[in-house]
Structures are given as C-alpha cells and as structure tokens.
Amino acid sequence: MGRTDRTDRAGLVIAAPPTTVYDALLTPEALEAWLPPDGMRGRIERWDPWQGGGFRMVLTYLDPTGSPGKTSDATDVVDVEFADLVPPERVVQRAVFEADDPSYAGTMTMTWHLAATGEGTEVTVTATDVPPGIDQADHETAIAASLANLSSYVEAAG
C-alpha cells in the first residue's frame, strides 16, 4: 500500500513562455533531446501526440556498467499514454516500464504543470504510483535533471 501514498516531485522556473515549454513536451525530437537522464540516450519508436495517444521511448545507457536497465542490461523501454492534454497548462502522462522485475511493474502517472510567471514558466512535475523499485531520491534527482535539460533545450531554441 505504501506505493500509492508516495509522490515524487520537482520543479523549476524556465525562461520561456508556457507555449514553448508545452511544445517541447509534445515534439518527439525535443523529447529525445531533453527527456533522457544524464548518461542515457533516448529514441522514440511510436508517436501519437493526442489525448489517449502517446509514445514509446527506448532509453539506452551510454555506459551500462553498474546501472542495470529495467528492460535489459543496457536499456529501459517505457510506454507513455497522454492521459490529459491542456495546452499550454498541463500534460498528464501514464508511463509503464517494460520489466520482468515486479518492483518496476505498474503504471506511474506524471503530471507536468506549467504556470506563467514573470520570469517565464514555472514547471512542476508530480509523479504518483511510482513503482517501488525506483528509489525516491534518485527519481526526484532524475526529474530535476530532466527539467534542467528541458530548460537548456527551450532556452537554446528560443
């Protein structure tokens, strides 16, 4: 039961308008550039950018030593459904990792909330129903790293 009570979150103010940030959440080339955590490369295999659609991303460890993947030793494969799309305010994703290990099983919900601020866009990411095999501190660090990558990506593009 502890799994349902856990919420992982991270936030960052990004120096870009909400529409620019929202577009980076719904463009495959952008997601491949900023979503993979440090030390991983991402490739989108399926792309259906509408509510009820989603995408499949293969994440490959650049150096798999000591970082066993969830799907294979060197990869994580995640299927993501767009559960809710409210431009330019919110993207709700339901993510399922392909894994034999039951501690990574289940559907994790990631809510990306975008709010305009004087400096740009405050982006808050909230993850619920996180599989227990994913360490909370590591996960929040990874979300924060993805937000930093997103910030660099949209600021460079702008």
Automatic annotation (TrEMBL):
Q: Which InterPro entries match?
A: ASHA1/2-like_C, START-like_dom_sf
Where is the Activator of Hsp90 ATPase homologue 1/2-like C-terminal domain positioned along the sequence? 15-155
Q: Which Gene3D superfamilies match?
A: 3.30.530.20
**Which residues, by range, are in coiled-coil regions?**
none
Q: What family is reported?
A: Belongs to the AHA1 family.
The molecule here is called Activator of Hsp90 ATPase homologue 1/2-like C-terminal domain-containing protein
